[in-house]
Amino acid sequence: MKYKSVFDIIGPIMIGPSSSHTAGAARIGKMARELFGREPEWATISFYGSFAKTFRGHGTDVAMIGGIMNFETDDERIIQAFDHAKEKKIRIKIREEEAVTDHPNTARISLGDKNGEMELVGISIGGGKIEIIELNGFELKLTGHHPAILVVHDDRFGAIAAVSNLLASHKINIGHMDVSRKDVGKMALMTIEVDQNVNEEVINELKKLPEVTQVTRIVS
Amino acid sequence: MFRNVAELVELAETSNKKISDIMIEQEMSVTNRSREEVLAQMERNLSVMEEAVEKGLQGVKSHSGLTGGDAVLLQKYIAGGKSLSGDLLLDAVSKAVATNEVNAAMGTICATPTAGSAGVVPGTLFAVQRKLNPTREEKIRFLFTSGAFGFVVANNASISGAAGGCQAEVGSASGMAAAAIVEMAGGSPAQCAEAMAITLKNMLGLVCDPVAGLVEVPCVKRNAMGAANAMVAADMSLAGITSRIPCDEVIDAMYKIGQTMPVALRETAQGGLAATPTGRELEAKIFGFALNKKD
After folding, report:
1. Which of A19, A72, B104, B251 is deepest in the core (most CB within 10 A)?
2. Distance set, CA B180 to CA B19, B128, B177 (Å)
């Protein structure tokens, strides 16, 4: 079942006018910010489908930019997000795409600074609920409703076992797990949803595993 | 966990509970929280709804200038004592409009189930409370009952205009409100489901065609009629009228209609009212150009 909580239906509390095109957009932006882990110097947002046709009317652009600056769905600063971005010297580019995507409310966000870049694809599925479906070319499914860790690792035997053993030794239960890879034997991504927030110490231990190249944490 | 309306009603009736009880218990179990915590979160939503209605009844105006002020007009008209469809019904309509006018003006609202359809549930709640005198907890329950029916629609069909048209948004909101009114008025869980079915049947096929892509025209007035529809359907159900087509099958029909709806009529501002000469003219005036040259 896609919706698990009554507060997905009655809620969120948000700045209008659209739960999918405003609140959902803010959440996709905020998720991008969390995954990037810091304030970006530039952001490029590409809108597809209904997002591309109606983002001006729904404030989808300001909401997503607000999210990228870590604003919540009910933060009134969203309305002036362009001004806030200018103050923070974040360069913003918005693109309207013609390509047809599987979901009508799709956005691709690229964030970057001198230390790196990140690209993700998010969809807004209704009532403010979102999913991240692609991260740096990896397919995944991330809802932001549970704490999660994303582990970039070598596509090699034992990598999954090493990560899950380490989590088990810290008594962390895995609720949902996905593994996606670009090609056999190359880079792969584990998306692990867990029942409780994972602390810094565990993240550092994960980073030390020989197969692991990068670890990102999503706090819920 | 209930998967459809039939299971929801059966759970409530076999345990001699209300729909709101079932929803509260499920939420406690899914999120592993106490009853107090779950009720407190819903009360915050209720407070936001109260503030939004209050703000809308003072009069607001959207940035585009397309909407605002109609809730005030209706309240003045009601006060004149000459309403034909009844003060309570019009009160629900004006409060639904008030909420959506605040939403269109980028004010703070609570999505129920979406922002574009956020007026219907609070509009009806704050109108019927004058007649039914509910306690604070009963008002919170109203939202859980609405949520229970919305939960089924969201999981078995859709609550997104881009995916299923306005029937999925205002249609769902209207059905959710009707069911909650019935429970607050003392109706049975089965009667709640009948009210939901009767309401949704009358919203089937409703397209999502916002002018200039803004959640304003016709969204605000669709919330008005959504509230009226919910009030009448609740009364019909309380009178003992039932739907020949069971609630779950109506929801399924709504889903299938949404799937076959052309993209132009699903929140793309390409068809319907958005594509009328006046719709296009308003769009060009607001943005300085027309979004969609081809109709």
Report:
1. A19
2. 9, 11, 5
* Segment B78-119, tens digit of pLDDT: 999 999 999 999 999 999 999 999 999 999 999 999 999 999
- Distance, in Å, from the CA atom of B42 to the CA atom of B265, rounded to the nearest integer, reads 33
Taking CB atoms and an 8 Å limit, are A17 and B215 in contact across chains?
Answer: yes
Return the amino acid letter for A214: Q
Distant-in-sequence, close-in-space partners of B4: CB < 8 Å, separation ≥ 6: B152, B156, B248, B251
**Tokens in use for A17?**
């006018």
B266 DSSP assignment = B
Q: Domains of chain A (ranges plus CATH)?
A: 11-136 (3.30.1330.90), 148-218 (3.30.70.260)
Record: contact A105-B216, CB cut-off 8 A: no
Q: Does the model's ipTM exceed the 0.90 cut?
A: yes
CB contact residues (below 8 A), chain A span 58-77, against chain B = 58-59, 74, 76
Provide the shortest C-alpha distance from residue A166 to chain B (in Å).
Answer: 25
Q: Where are the domains of chain B?
A: 5-287
Question: How many Cα atoms are found within 13 Å in the side-chain-facing hemisphere of A63?
Answer: 29
pTM: 0.87
How do A13-15 and A105-113 pair as beta strands? unpaired
Report, at the CATH architecture level, how domain B5-287 is classified: Orthogonal Bundle (1.10)
The answer to whether A9 contacts B106, with C-beta atoms less than 8 Å apart, is no
